[in-house]
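Running this now, will post back.
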Amino acid sequence: MKIAYQGIEGSYSESCSKDMYPDCKTIPCKTFDDVFKKASEDEEVRAIIPESNRTTGNIGVEYLIFKYRLNIYKEKFYPINHHLLALPGTKIKDIKNVYSHAQGLSQCSNFIKKNNFIENVRADTAGSAKYISESKIKGEAAIASKESAKIYNLDILTSNIQDEKSNVTRFLLMGKPLIQPDLKNEKYITSFLFKLKSKPAALYSALSGFAIHGVNLTKLQSYPEKNSFSSYFFLCDLDGHIEDPKVQKSLKELGLHTEDFHVLGVFISDEFRDK
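Update: finished.
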């Protein structure tokens, strides 16, 4: 399997890919848009996307989910343990500037404030580690993974510096081909997006079918349509398989109130949800 991810070798997306599929071939991409585009253009390529984090919330890739409408095959709740990395021989008292992805900095905000570090945002965590390795400046450090420390020959000054020790990111495995599991004795998630018709109480009316038929929505997120703040798409997850009669009835009622509806995928619920 070939899996495209945002970042470079040592990123959390790459680590998550290899955790799911140890023999996969990973393809580094500069941006999330590049990841989606590569999977959209090549049916043999899958995209691994961090969708949300337990500490900081949504990562901010919703507009790309709407744009490309790739199919979701799998979700993976992956533990994110951040470490402070620096050149060999560096002491924590020497550090003034710290580099990482915006999410990495946000997830370690307490540690950063405690040590009065100056934050510097970069495109990804592993790229920050590579920068520190190449810059040779001992007054700078990166917040990145243990794998990045090994790859870029850096010391780990402090381990597990994230604010929440049970820091977890939800990753989605996506691709172009339509692949859907058969309904069996499993827990499923159905993911979909929709745009409402313009009428009063449209959202209330659209969602009432889920309550009537006893279908649980686990995610409901709005996102403005391009160049508009009066028209919104909604991204939803529900507990259940699309072939379940209760789900079908709920989605049929939803369809009466939408002008755009698209199923993004049906996949087995990650066991982490039960913890």
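The mean pLDDT is 95. More later if anyone needs it.
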